[in-house]
Design goal:
246 residues; alpha/beta; 7-stranded parallel β-sheet; two-stranded parallel ribbon; 40% helix
Length: 246
């Protein structure tokens, strides 16, 4: 049977780059989104123009909620495809930037559901569906490694995601399924640079040893490397250009 991969949050940005890379490598890819119909339609048109119309399925589902996870999994064809790779990319964009004393319980619960609880329950729900010697990759963030006082809720979830991936290594060891994390820093996407000023962007760039921001395709290449190398397990791969090495 044909090998399949699931990439959550994958109609634009880093997720889209990961999905396209895996499709080009012969995977049947389940692409997921929830809000952006325009991005989903644009990706569909691109894939059909490139002759990949039989290499993907785009599924609309809010996987930040348990009922959305159930609906999403119901649309996966486990009879004709071997689920070899699960890439957990979907998350909140980290827009909760309140001062520490002003962060609310509602804000905390929302971002923890999007960035930690949802990936946890998705892996849990798909655990018995994964093929032996498969791979699970969490897309975390450099904010989960380097503390940032204005992104406390987001950073907490991303740090916890890294910890979760390490804990799952033992859970999947018997079936030789690797579990790793990719931690991108400043990657040019639909979300970054956003409305940052030229001065702000330059101050960030000065901290990056390679003197530039990253590309989504470079993160996708890192994910593919982790999928293909079966001896990398429990690792955190930073894709940050040497951030803070200057």
């Amino acid at each position: 049977m044909r090998k399949a991969a699931i990439v959550t949050g994958s109609t634009k940005g880093i997720g889209k780059a990961i999905a396209l890379n895996l499709i080009k490598k012969g995977y049947f890819v389940y692409i997921n989104y929830f809000h952006d119909e325009e991005a989903a339609n644009s990706l569909k048109n691109y894939l059909e123009m490139q002759g990949f119309d039989k290499s993907y399925s785009i599924i609309k589902a809010d996987i930040s909620k348990k009922d959305g996870i159930i609906k999403f999994i119901e649309k996966i064809d486990f009879k004709n495809y071997n689920l070899c790779s699960l890439i957990l990319n979907a998350s909140s964009n980290g827009s909760v930037r309140n001062e520490f004393r002003k962060i609310t319980e509602e804000e905390m619960l929302k971002i923890f559901w999007s960035n930690l609880f949802a990936p946890f329950f998705l892996v849990q729900s798909l655990a018995d569906k994964m093929e032996e010697e498969g791979s699970i990759v969490f897309i975390s963030s450099h904010v989960g490694i380097y503390p940032h006082s204005t992104y406390i809720p987001y950073g907490l979830t991303k740090a916890a995601e890294i910890s979760l991936a390490k804990m799952l290594v033992k859970e999947f060891a018997e079936r030789r399924i690797t579990v790793n994390t990719v931690a991108p820093a400043f990657i040019e996407t639909n979300m970054f640079p956003g409305n940052r000023t030229p001065e702000h962007l330059e101050s960030i760039r000065e901290k990056v040893a390679v003197h530039r921001f990253g590309k989504a395709e470079e993160v996708a290449a890192a994910v593919t490397a982790l999928i293909e190398n079966k001896y990398i397990n429990g690792s955190v791969l930073s894709v940050d250009g040497g951030y803070d090495y200057k």
